[in-house]
């Protein structure tokens, strides 16, 4: 599984555009954390790779779970994969 493309920031105000439900609603950090976890990294490994605390990684994963409505890491992988395949 590779990296996920994130919606570019629009024009001049630097604010993200409203997004549809699913992976496109994830913040850039949430998307990076989710991608690394989906690739099998531990929370500690993700924290080190992204220069975050383990608690920050855990908080991001909680938000990812809420946004993608997943109950397990296998559902996270499936949810991210299905979001990649959608146009």
How would you explain this protein's 3D organization?
The protein has 87 residues and is mostly helical. It has one domain (23-85): Winged helix-like DNA-binding domain superfamily/Winged helix DNA-binding domain (Arc Repressor Mutant, subunit A), CATH 1.10.10. The protein has four helices and no strands. The chain has helices spanning 28-38, 43-50, 54-68, 73-85. The longest helix has 15 residues, at 54-68. The relative contact order is 0.18.
Tally of helical segments: 4
Low-confidence stretches: 1-21
CATH architecture: Orthogonal Bundle
Mean pLDDT: 75
Overall number of domains = 1
Q: CATH homologous superfamily - what is it?
A: Winged helix-like DNA-binding domain superfamily/Winged helix DNA-binding domain
Alpha-beta classification = mainly alpha
Shape: globular
How would a textbook summarize the main sheet? none
What's the end-to-end separation, in Å? Answer: 17 Å
Could you tell me the number of beta strands?
A: 0
Keywords:
Arc Repressor Mutant, subunit A, 4 helices
Itemize the secondary structure elements and their pairings.
Elements: H1 28-38, H2 43-50, H3 54-68, H4 73-85
Give the structure's gist in a few sentences.
This protein is an all-alpha fold and 87 residues long. The protein has one domain (23-85): Winged helix-like DNA-binding domain superfamily/Winged helix DNA-binding domain (Arc Repressor Mutant, subunit A).
